Give the backbone structure.
Amino acid sequence: MNNRATQILPHHRYVQSLGAPLACVQGTISKVFAGPENHHGANHQHFVIKIDKVLKFEGGTQNLAGTEVFVAVRFGDNEGLAQEIPGLQAGQPIEAQGEYISEASAYPTVDNSNPVLPVLHFTHHPVGYVKYEGQYYS
């Protein structure tokens, strides 16, 4: 499967969009990486979610339930969150929305390698969000 959605979706008009399907998932944090990674001039908070339930998957066709997805949340500038999401811990429930980049289209990073997991990208305004411990971050 390639990175492109099976249809043109409203979120594709944003410059940060990769033209990928929009996924909204609930799951459990399986890993939190220490410290942010600076990627293309922006800080990103990294963690992995084991998907328990798919709430929405616009433009995609595969079943995501039961898979793990690497999440990179941009923060610290006017394009992402103001700051990191506080207190992320493995074993805790979480909900996230963003563009789903399949493992075949995801590129390896320091934290996402061996194996490269699918990526939930654009998990901030105006397309995505993270809900953790009752708080929305967008």
Observations:
- The beta strands are 22-32, 37-39, 42-58, 68-75, 93-101, 119-121, 129-132, 135-137.
- The two ends are 28 Å apart (CA to CA).
- The longest strand covers residues 42-58.
